[in-house]
What we know:
three-stranded antiparallel β-sheet, globular, 4 helices, alpha+beta, 47% helix
Amino acid sequence: MAIFSAWVKDKETKQQLRIDKEYPTKAKFIYDLKANGYAVNPDKVKISKVFDYILDNTNCTPEEWKYINKIPAYNESISDIINTGIQKTFERQEANFYKKYPKN
């Protein structure tokens, strides 16, 4: 089991808050948060150490939340991680496009 952290919004009060809990999987944590009346962006649910790293060392842009899933090594830059994530997303979208519309 791991400690997960999430940045959520209470649907009733519209208040944003951080929640930390120990769960076996990220999916179960998100499911319970939604069941308890919170709006959850899955990109903003991370293992607690990664969550703290993003808050302390980045500008908290949507790309950083989406592509940083582990604490970078000392020789790895945040921009390299984001660019690699964007490239992989593009390649996956391109592959799906060519499955749907094969080249003749």
